[in-house]
Design brief:
Blueprint: E1 6-17, E2 20-31, E3 35-40, H1 46-53, E4 64-67, E5 70-71, H2 77-84, E6 87-90, H3 102-113, H4 118-131, H5 147-159, E7 165-169, H6 177-194, E8 197-201, H7 205-211, E9 214-219, E10 224-229, H8 231-235, H9 241-248
Parallel strand pairs: 3-8, 3-9, 6-7, 7-8
Antiparallel strand pairs: 1-2, 1-4, 4-5, 9-10
Helix pairs in contact: 3-4, 3-5, 4-5
Length: 251
């Protein structure tokens, strides 16, 4: 870990799709162990930014993403694989394979990337399902689960490789308020118990104010960050009217 305690450092990150510029010269740090939330309106680049952080897409030249002090952009083969193994990801739809059981979904990463025995894989499946409140559901297929249970199963899969950084893309999307609140609490509980750094992309204000340690807000027209700070700081943010209205739910 770097002495300044930043697990991720993003510098001059710019992203374009063809001639369309999405993000320009974005800069921020994520501290070890915090819940870091990315917010903003539709089309502002929230999910694009997350895809850059987890190595699914390549940014423009001149961009830099340091993970545990090591440059991700341009890293090759084994070095890149090692960096990317720092991340566990829960995608917006859950991303579970429909033809596989919950247990098979969770065990797949262990089977593919480790030499762990079948008995140990079963133990890991049980441990991670227990951690998300789904113990005993390893033989269910995703279609047999509720929306909230699918999210929990996806979190269990994201946790199975013991990542340094756990990423969530719209974790409460499509859930009723009570179920969404339970997912928020699960995120907080995992963060508190194992100190995993969390990166959360969401537009749900209740969730943002409930779980975040620090926040950046992106803006489509600026193509970057228009505000950053704690929930309390952004609720009292007077430098930008849109930011103030967003965090205080004012029309």
């Amino acid at each position: 870990m770097k002495e300044n305690d930043n697990i991720i450092e993003v510098r001059n990150l710019s992203v374009s799709y063809g001639k369309m510029s999405i993000l320009e010269n974005v800069n921020f740090d994520i501290k070890q162990g915090e819940i870091f939330v990315i917010v903003g309106g539709s089309g502002c680049g929230k999910s694009t930014l997350l895809r850059q952080l987890i190595g699914l897409e390549t940014p423009n030249k001149g961009s830099s993403i340091l993970v545990n002090g090591v440059e991700l952009i341009g890293a090759k083969k084994d070095a890149r694989r090692k960096i990317l193994q720092s991340f566990g990801v829960m995608f917006q739809s859950g991303g579970l394979f429909a033809s596989m059981t919950v247990g098979e979904n969770i065990g797949l990463l262990l089977e593919s990337y480790t030499k762990v025995t079948k008995k140990r894989i079963d133990d890991f499946i049980d441990l991670n399902l227990s951690a998300v409140g789904l113990r005993g559901f390893e033989n269910f297929i995703p279609s047999e689960l509720s929306g909230g249970m699918k999210k929990r199963a996806a979190i269990a899969r994201a946790l199975v490789m013991n990542p340094d950084i756990l990423c969530f893309d719209e974790p409460s999307s499509g859930l009723d308020p009570v179920t969404a609140a339970s997912i928020d609490q699960l995120i907080k509980d995992i963060n508190a118990s194992i100190k995993t750094t969390m990166i959360v992309v969401t537009h749900d204000l209740a969730s943002i104010l409930n779980i975040s340690d620090s926040i950046i807000m992106l803006d489509k027209s600026k193509k970057g960050i228009i505000a950053k700070g704690t929930p309390e700081e952004l609720k009292n943010y007077k430098d930008n009217e849109y930011v103030y209205k967003f965090f205080n739910r004012i029309a």
